[in-house]
């Protein structure tokens, strides 16, 4: 670590297995903060969860305004789950990252990922795959509406815009 930056002396940060992995703390939207700053705890990688547990944990993170972290939960599911479910989990991860980009002010990337994720989730569901209680129709509607608003310049609060993965918001549709 460099004394000036608190970061690595040279090269990239690496995890215990030697893989490149930034050690910089991150905020709730996954943006890197300076070394030494207080950040949001990261999601542990490689956690194998049952599908329902994946959906519940991702929902908790979405509700907390941390869609970047929810994306990591979905990423674990696509990497550890059956190959036939990859489109579902990747699509849900893309929706979470789309919300992340939208909340960061990246309208183009946010809208693009929201639409791409919705296409993946919708295509998977149309193929008859198990959706584990995910409200596919509601989620697709949410993604399309949010993508349109983001393209029109709406500012997005990640927690306020979080979708209900398994049904309508408690205070509305």
Radius of gyration: 17 Å
State the separation between the terminal residues, measured CA to CA. Answer: 50 Å
Q: How many runs of DSSP E, i.e. beta strands?
A: 0
- Portion in strands: under 5%
**What's the mean pLDDT score?**
88
Structural class: mainly alpha
Structural commentary:
α3 runs antiparallel to α4. Helix content is 47%, strand content 0%. It has five helices and no strands. It has helices spanning 51-63, 67-80, 86-104, 107-126, 136-151. It is mostly helical and 173 residues long. Residues 169-173 have low confidence and may be disordered.
What is this structure, in a nutshell?
The chain has 173 residues and is mainly α. It contains five helices and no strands.
Fold topology:
Layout: H1 51-63, H2 67-80, H3 86-104, H4 107-126, H5 136-151
List its salient traits:
single chain; 173 residues; mainly alpha; 5 helices; globular; disordered C terminus
